[in-house]
Structures are given as structure tokens and as C-alpha cells.
């Protein structure tokens, strides 16, 4: 008897304990995925500003720019050629005096979002165009709703305003509206507004249902110039420990007619993604890998802590494994290339 055989005899291997036979090959490793990353899962955020020729780097948000309408078509064309299917638009008005307490500029027909909808629709008939719906980029105080004297949100007038903005984006041709304000009741108001305007059948309402307050939105607020002047968003975005609140928000938005939901941020909240996949099992679930998460991964890669492509895939797989089937990600341009060669 050889030495090895004796060893095996002495320490018999349980037949069920060997897993590695199931994933020793590159193909069988792929077969382990319950969901496989595809290009069509990616939604790319675009920051559209009111200087038509802008193509401005955003220092805290690596590789992302603020775009003017005159510059956006060639850029989007290069991504569509690589397989881009969907974008989400954010408006960044920078002209003096354009912001006011009620966010009038949000649905200005000559503002950057509505002009971009028209331009993208004309140039890319197959591109799915989503619009973030919020007021913080357009209000003088930088909050996501209309305020009382004491700084709290006036709910009813805010949701009416948000619904009007969403309807105007839909009228301009947006395929989806995505309210990110976190003000109670806005999904119902938006859905009703779309119904009243005969747009509900052709507009997806993708609600940021579980959106947590925290430290991961800094680079976005630099990009969108949307930091609140005073106070913070803790009275409307969810507290990081609020798992029960997130469940209630998901159930509420589902009941109010959301066609899809977003959990945001992504990596720190994957338990909530799993909850969402269970509570909202009949509709698509997106995660938003937000600006701070994205910037952290870049910073870590620059420090040599991790490989950027590797960690980007790992983060994306985390969202998929938790139950997401859509990814809103600043890595979208990279994934459109990476998914060709992996
Ligand atoms: C607007 C909005 C924000 C984000 C998406 N929509 C900022 C905020 O709530 O302050 C964050 C996205 C990101 O950080 O990448 N309400
Ligand atoms: Zn906002």
C-alpha cells in the first residue's frame, strides 16, 4: 500500500465534502452564477448642465463629466456602439439665479434634462431614457422638497410638484421616471399624474424606494451641485439601521404602483436588496452603486489595495447575488468593454 492510500484509509473523505469538482473549470465557475452579468442590465448616469458646450471633469467622481447638450451625442454614440441600452439623466443648472425655493427649473422645457431627452430620442431611437426626479438640484436651499419655515418638508405640495415634473419628463419622451426624493406618497402622485395625462401605459415608474441617508453621496453632490445649504437629509432619507423602515417603504411603493424599485447605496445594503427581491418579487430590482462607493473603489485601486476591474465585477456580482437584476453604475462604460472580453 502506498503512503497516500494509507492516508486516505485513515482519514476517509466524506463523499459530500468535495465541492471543488463543481467549479474547477472556467466554464463551470460561470455555471455557478444564478444570474449572469449582461450589458442590458446597466443603466448609466449622465449629468447634464446648462452650459451647452460643457465637458467638465468632476474631481471627486473619477472619469465622469458634466455634459452640455452640444457634446452629449458623440459621447453617447460611442457607448451605444459598445452596447449601451439605458441612461438616467440628472440636471445640473449652473446659471445665476436659476434656483428657487420650489425648484421651478426642474422641468423647464429649455433646461438641460428636457432638451437632452429630445436630443437622445432623435439620435438613439432604441436607447431607454430614464430621468431622475428630484428637486434638490433645482432648489435654492438644496433640499429634495419644498420646505416649511422650520426646514421640514411640506409633503403634499412637494409630491404635487414632483408629479408635475415627472409628467413633464414623460411628455418630453422619457421612458422612465425615477423619483429619488424619498418624500412619502410621491409614487402614488406620479402614477396618478401619468394616468391623468394618458402616459401611464408608456412610462415606467422606477422608485428609489429604499434610499439611505449617509456618507456615500458626496461626489454626486459635487457633480450635481446639490448639497443642502443647511441641515441634512436625515428626516426623509432612511436611517442606515432602518431595515424595518426599508421594508415598509418597499411595500408602500409597491402598493402605490411602482413598476420597478431601486435600493441605494448598493454594497453596504445588500441585505436590503435581498429583502427587496422578496418583497417586490414581481418587479425588476435595481441597485445604485452610488458616487461614494464608486470613488472609494477607485481610491482603493489607486492605493494598490485592489484591482479596479476585479473589484468592480465583485461588487456587481454582489448586487446580482443579493437579488438585483439592474445596475445603475458609473462603471457602465468600462463594463461595456469588459463584458466583451471576459
Ligand atoms: C437626488 C439624488 C442623489 C443621488 C441620486 N439622486 C443625491 C442625494 O440624495 O443627495 C445620489 C447618487 C450618487 O451619489 O451617485 N436626490
Ligand atoms: Zn434630491
Structural topology:
Layout lengths: L2 H8 L15 H6 L10 E8 L5 E3 L7 E3 L1 H12 L5 E7 L19 H12 L4 E6 L21 H18 L3 E4 L6 H11 L7 E8 L6 H7 L18 H13 L4 E5 L5 H10 L5 E5 L1 H12 L5 H15 L3 E4 L2 H10 L1
Parallel strand pairs: 1-3, 1-4, 1-10, 4-5, 5-6, 6-7, 7-8, 8-9, 9-10
Antiparallel strand pairs: 2-3
Helix pairs in contact: 3-4, 5-6, 8-9
The protein binds ligand PBG and zinc ion.
Provide an overview of this structure.
The chain has 342 residues and is of the alpha/beta class. The chain has a domain of 226 residues: Aldolase class I (TIM Barrel, Alpha-Beta Barrel). The chain is built from 12 helices and 10 strands. α4 links the parallel β4 and β5. α8 packs parallel to α9. The site of ligand PBG has 11 residues, from α7.
TL;DR of this structure?
By secondary structure, the protein is an alpha/beta fold.
CATH class of the domain at 37-262: Alpha Beta
- The termini sit apart by 45 Å
Kindly report the average pLDDT value: 95
- Largest sheet report: 8 strands, parallel, barrel
Query: Helical content, roughly?
Result: 25-40%
CATH architecture of the domain at 37-262: Alpha-Beta Barrel
Low-confidence stretches: none
Ligands, deduplicated: ligand PBG, zinc ion
Catalytic activity: 2 5-aminolevulinate = porphobilinogen + 2 H2O + H(+)
Family: Belongs to the ALAD family.
Function: Catalyzes an early step in the biosynthesis of tetrapyrroles. Binds two molecules of 5-aminolevulinate per subunit, each at a distinct site, and catalyzes their condensation to form porphobilinogen.
GO biological process, one term: protoporphyrinogen IX biosynthetic process
Amino acid at each position: 500500500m502506498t503512503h497516500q492510500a494509507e492516508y486516505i484509509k485513515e482519514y476517509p473523505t466524506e463523499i459530500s465534502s468535495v465541492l471543488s469538482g463543481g467549479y474547477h473549470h472556467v466554464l463551470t465557475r460561470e455555471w455557478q452564477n444564478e444570474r449572469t452579468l449582461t450589458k442590458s442590465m446597466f443603466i448609466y448616469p449622465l449629468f447634464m448642465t446648462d452650459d451647452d458646450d460643457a465637458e467638465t471633469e468632476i474631481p471627486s467622481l473619477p472619469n465622469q463629466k458634466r455634459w452640455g447638450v452640444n457634446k452629449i451625442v458623440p459621447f453617447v454614440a460611442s457607448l451605444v456602439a459598445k452596447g449601451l441600452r439605458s441612461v438616467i439623466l440628472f440636471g445640473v443648472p449652473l446659471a445665476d439665479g436659476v434656483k428657487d425655493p420650489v425648484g421651478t427649473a426642474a422641468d423647464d422645457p429649455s433646461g438641460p434634462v428636457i432638451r437632452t431627452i429630445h436630443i437622445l430620442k432623435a439620435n438613439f431611437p432604441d436607447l431607454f431614457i430614464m430621468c431622475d426626479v428630484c428637486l434638490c438640484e433645482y432648489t435654492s436651499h438644496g433640499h429634495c422638497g419644498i420646505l416649511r419655515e422650520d426646514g421640514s418638508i411640506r409633503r403634499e405640495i412637494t409630491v404635487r410638484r414632483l408629479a408635475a415634473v415627472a409628467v413633464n419628463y414623460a411628455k418630453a419622451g422619457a421612458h422612465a421616471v425615477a423619483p429619488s426624493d424619498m418624500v412619502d406618497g410621491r409614487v402614488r402622485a406620479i402614477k396618478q399624474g401619468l394616468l391623468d395625462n394618458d402616459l401611464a401605459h408608456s412610462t415606467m415608474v422606477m422608485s428609489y424606494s429604499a434610499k439611505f441617508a449617509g456618507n456615500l453621496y458626496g461626489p454626486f453632490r459635487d457633480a450635481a451641485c446639490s448639497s443642502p445649504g443647511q441641515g441634512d437629509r436625515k428626516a426623509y432619507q432612511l436611517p442606515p439601521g432602518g431595515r424595518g423602515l426599508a421594508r415598509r417603504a418597499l411595500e408602500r411603493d409597491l402598493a402605490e404602483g411602482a413598476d420597478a424599485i431601486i435600493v441605494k447605496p448598493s454594497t453596504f445594503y445588500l441585505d436590503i436588496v435581498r429583502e427587496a427581491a422578496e418583497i417586490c418579487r414581481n418587479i425588476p430590482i435595481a441597485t445604485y452603486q452610488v458616487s461614494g462607493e464608486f470613488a472609494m473603489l477607485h481610491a482603493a485601486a489607486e492605493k494598490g489595495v485592489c484591482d479596479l476591474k476585479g473589484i468592480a465585477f465583485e461588487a456587481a456580482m454582489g448586487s446580482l447575488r443579493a437579488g438585483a437584476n439592474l445596475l445603475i453604475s458609473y462603471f457602465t462604460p468600462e463594463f461595456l468593454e469588459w463584458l466583451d472580453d471576459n
